[in-house]
Write a structure and sequence with these properties.
Low-confidence stretches: 322-341
GO molecular function, one term: ATP binding
Strand content: 15-25%
Largest sheet: 6 strands, mixed
Organism: Nonomuraea guangzhouensis
Shape: globular
Distance between the termini: 57 Å
CATH topology of the largest domain: Rossmann fold
Structural class: alpha/beta
Bound molecules: adenosine-5'-triphosphate
Keywords: ATP-binding, Nucleotide-binding, Repeat, Transport
Family: Belongs to the ABC transporter superfamily.
Protein name: ABC transporter ATP-binding protein
Order of helices and strands: EEEHEEHEHHHHHEHEHEEHHHHEEHH
Number of strands: 12
CATH architecture of the largest domain: 3-Layer(aba) Sandwich
Radius of gyration: 23 Å
Strand order of the largest sheet: 6-7-8-3-9-10
Length: 346
């Protein structure tokens, strides 16, 4: 099956359509989409636009009315749905852990179904608990009700990864957590995916989350019609139309600053004074701008040279304000929104 390459498999949707019985219009209408192997693609769109239906057709929790789905070149509709689902990881907001099974048993469920030996399953469960930052000795034998919401969501992700599937479907998997836990889970997940390079479809309502996690974002309209499908940077720089621009909101420049690293920008080879603020190469341009504003200067030192305010503006395609530099000292805590209003949008 397509899971021979567990590092990720290409997903192709062709004219994919779902018309629920008794409904006046299809929930998903004639969708074409290619998802390259090893990429994480985020579906964003308003409630009811068909994100979940599109995703559930891929593991056949919903049967398509018409169209084609291929994973790793294989026709998904010709496979037995149960067999198919054992090779696609699935994580959802409600987590769906079995309350009467321990955490270890929940994670080991699919490997057991796949006929793995008890020893191999036990090793995998331990490996996965460690991977999602849950100490195996502390969590293996607990029941789901004995875990916090964020911990349960980590178990949900571990369970989806259990059989090392090439494809993962994730429907708002961090949705039910508070903002701090959510950010933590997102950061961990970004690190994890860098390592695993699964092919992932990730549904969210949160555009910030889409920018942070996605190699590409599919912005969907009603009936899953694709308004734009591109990298976060390209969508932020060139939204296809007002609909997409509406999703991005007011802070496109800020979001682009957050996406770019100091290392991505041409720095000038010039002497650095002792009082020039310093920034690391992997800091974002948003952080660099904050540092400049906090120090009332238009430049800061980085490992590859001096990063100037003008270079920063050029990197996000914004004209530097005339007379240039962020002149007033502002506390770092004033945050980038205030900074950009002050420095970029004058
Ligand atoms: N089982 C069903 N029977 C009939 N209609 C359905 C069924 N499931 C979903 N729908 C309808 O299909 C459309 C798309 O629903 P879907 O859940 O895919 O949207 P969504 O974009 O995931 O929404 P949300 O963001 O609110 O979860 C909606 O109009 C919904 O009411």
């Amino acid at each position: 099956m397509f899971d021979r390459d567990t590092g990720g498999a290409r997903i192709e949707l062709r004219a994919l359509t779902k018309h629920y019985p008794g409904q006046p219009a299809p929930a998903v209408d004639n969708v074409d989409l290619d998802i390259p192997a090893g990429e994480l693609v985020v579906f964003v769109g308003p409630s009811g636009c068909g994100k979940t239906t599109t995703m559930k057709m891929i593991n056949r929790l919903v049967e398509p009315t018409s169209g084609e789905i291929r994973i790793g070149g294989q026709d998904v509709l010709s496979l037995h749905p149960d067999e198919l689902r054992r090779h696609i990881g699935y994580a959802i907001q409600q987590v769906g852990l079995f309350p009467h099974l321990t955490i270890g048993q929940n994670i080991g469920l699919v490997p057991k179904l796949l006929g793995w030996s008890a020893a191999r399953t036990a090793d995998r469960v331990e490996e996965l608990l460690t991977l999602v930052n849950l100490e195996p000795s502390a969590f293996h034998d607990r029941y789901p009700s004995q875990l916090s919401g964020g911990q349960q969501q980590r178990v949900g992700v571990a369970r989806a990864l259990a059989a090392d599937p090439p494809v993962m479907l994730m429907d708002e998997p961090f949705g039910a957590t508070d903002p701090i836990t959510r950010e933590h889970l997102q950061n961990e997940f970004v690190k994890l995916q860098k390592q695993l390079r699964k092919t992932i479809i990730f549904v969210t309502h949160d555009f910030e989350e889409a920018i942070k996690l996605g190699d590409r974002i599919a912005v969907l309209r009603e009936r899953s019609h694709i308004a734009q499908y591109d990298t976060p940077a390209n969508i932020l720089a060139n939204p296809a139309d007002d609909y997409v621009a509406g999703f991005i909101g007011q802070d496109a420049t800020l979001k682009r600053l957050a996406l770019l690293r100091v290392a991505d920008v041409q720095c000038e080879r010039q002497p650095m004074s002792a009082d020039m603020p310093r920034i690391t190469a992997d800091a974002s341009l948003r952080e660099a701008l904050d540092v400049m504003l906090a120090h009332g200067t238009d430049r800061c030192g980085s490992p590859s040279g001096v990063l100037t305010y003008d270079a920063l503006c050029e990197a996000v395609g914004t004209e530097p304000a005339s007379g240039t530099a962020p002149a007033r000292k502002e506390p770092v805590g004033a945050g980038p929104a205030a900074a950009l209003k002050e420095a970029v949008r004058r």
